[in-house]
Specification:
By secondary structure, this protein is α/β, with parallel strands linked by helices. It has two domains: 154 residues, Cobalamin-binding domain (Rossmann fold), CATH 3.40.50.280; 202 residues, tm_1862 like domain (pyruvate-formate lyase- activating enzyme, Alpha-Beta Horseshoe), CATH 3.80.30.20. Helix content is 36%, strand content 17%. The strands form three sheets. A seven-stranded mixed beta sheet has the order 2-1-3-4-5-6-7, with helices on both faces. α3 packs across α4, α8 packs across α9 and α9 runs parallel beside α10. It is globular, with a radius of gyration of 22 Å. The model has no long low-confidence stretch (mean pLDDT 93).
């Protein structure tokens, strides 16, 4: 029996807590680590360390001393690259014989960023559900989907095929997290602690700003029965609310309806949200009514822009009319609406950014989230800007959507100061409207959240 420590870097402190959206910061376990841990548990001892729950990384040293792992797996997105390297160096300083394994979207996009570091031994490329078991039990040269080092030589093994039947995956080991420590904002959930759940993988669409290095554009699903079995399991652990983590939950609209029906037929009562978003062209009123009846109280939409030309340039594949209809139907079904918007997209001008703010106000969503476009490695947007010499910084710690001072690329049409201006203006114009304030006040009174909303308002830097 081996001991495996799985680590998530501290992300909220850097990504959200010093930004305009700090009062709406989500706190929940990392699904990828729970998914990786599950297949290991029958044969090995596994511990998950979520550094996001601690104010500093001192806990890492304590856990290393106490647990003394044989293997350590680290995951993280692009902005946390430096922290992931620091963690790996801490591990090697503790014990150079520990095998350090890194995975995640940045490791898939730019694996050489990691494998060239002395503190990293193996990179996982693609799905990592069963790969740690193989790394432990097989010779590394026989494990598909890894990059590794042997006598200072980098070896890239053949790629790993997709898991064909997602129903055969074990339930994610969400019990390994310190559940009671996940206490998020009332703005991001109705009941805490919140757990993420995956019902499908992959997205068939091709938006230029999205990284599809791991799951690609191949849409694979868990059956409705399997999904609801997993829901019951997660609720039994003590989680009070679930957020769908899928990139494309309603790609198969009938399957989405069947999931709702299965929840209703089992008479399960819990709050859930499509927090990660669904497409405005992949829903109908029947689905929305079933979502509402099954306990889904909120739908997020990746709207991105209020200008049709920009939507076309980013390969969004949606129209202004579809967006308006989706929001209208959601309100008709009694579901809260949450919209994501981006500034600094390809082709963007001051007029198109003005269009986006005006469109958000016209939609009158319950929540609107505005971000500055970040060209993440592995995306078509990054590749295009990089080829043109417009990427000005490759300091990955600056790649935050809510950090207006990152200035990591040069926009062909706009000065960075102009993008910043509209980003800052968007929050003030949207949330300080008398109509929105009145609407929110009525909601707050009904939900008995007036004091919470006032505190959040006063803590926000407008």
């Amino acid at each position: 029996m081996k001991k495996i420590l799985l680590i998530n870097p501290s992300w909220r402190q850097h990504a959200y807590l010093k930004t305009k959206v700090k009062e709406a910061t989500l706190s929940q376990p990392v699904l990828s680590l729970a998914t990786i841990a599950a297949p290991l548990l029958p044969k090995h001892k596994v511990k998950i360390l979520d550094l996001d729950l601690y104010e500093n990384n001192d806990i890492l040293q304590s856990v290393l001393n106490e647990f003394n792992p044989d293997y350590v797996g680290i995951t993280g997105t692009t902005p946390f690259y430096n922290e992931m390297i620091n963690i790996s160096e801490t591990i090697k300083n503790f014990n150079k014989n520990i095998t350090v394994i890194v995975g995640g979207v940045h490791a898939n996009a730019l694996p050489d960023d990691f494998i060239n570091k002395e503190s990293v031994d193996i990179i996982v490329v693609g799905e990592g559900d069963f790969i740690l078991n193989e790394i432990i039990s097989k010779k590394i040269k026989d494990v598909k989907g890894v990059i590794w080092k042997h006598k200072n030589k980098i070896i890239r093994n053949p790629s790993r095929p997709f898991i064909e039947d997602l129903d055969k995956l074990p339930f994610p080991a969400l019990n390994l997290f310190e559940i009671d420590k996940y206490k998020g904002s009332h703005l991001t959930g109705r009941a805490h602690p919140i757990a993420p759940i995956e019902t499908s993988r992959g997205c068939p669409n091709n938006c230029v700003y999205c990284n599809k290095n791991i799951f690609k554009r191949v849409f694979r699903v868990k059956s409705p029965k399997r999904v609801v079995d997993e829901i019951e399991y997660i609720l039994s652990l003590g989680y009070k609310e679930l957020h769908i983590a899928d990139d494309a939950f309603s790609t198969d609209i009938q399957r989405a309806k069947d999931i709702c029906d299965e929840i209703i037929n089992r008479n399960l009562k819990f709050h859930w949200s499509l927090f990660n978003g669904i497409r405005v062209d992949r829903l109908d009123l029947e689905l929305l009514k079933k979502l509402k009846k099954s306990g889904c109280y909120q739908i997020a939409f990746g709207i991105e822009s209020g200008n049709q030309k920009i939507l076309d340039l980013i390969n969004k594949g949606t129209t202004i009319i579809q967006i308006e209809n989706a929001v209208k139907m959601s309100k008709e079904a009694g579901i809260e609406t949450f919209g994501f918007f981006m500034f600094g997209l390809p082709g963007e001008t001051e007029k198109t950014m003005r269009d986006t703010i005006n469109f958000a106000k016209k939609l009158n969503l319950d929540i609107a989230k505005f971000v500055i476009t970040i060209p993440y490695p592995g995306t078509e947007l990054y590749n295009d800007l990089n080829k043109k010499g417009l990427i000005k910084k490759k300091d990955w710690s600056k790649y935050f959507m809510h950090s207006s001072d990152s200035r990591i690329f040069e926009h062909p049409n706009l000065k960075w100061e102009t993008i910043e201006k509209y980003y800052k203006k968007s929050f003030r114009e949207y949330y300080l409207r008398p109509a929105y304030i009145y609407k929110r006040l009525i909601r707050s009174i009904k939900k008995k959240e007036v004091l919470k909303d006032i505190r959040a308002f006063l803590k926000t830097k407008w």
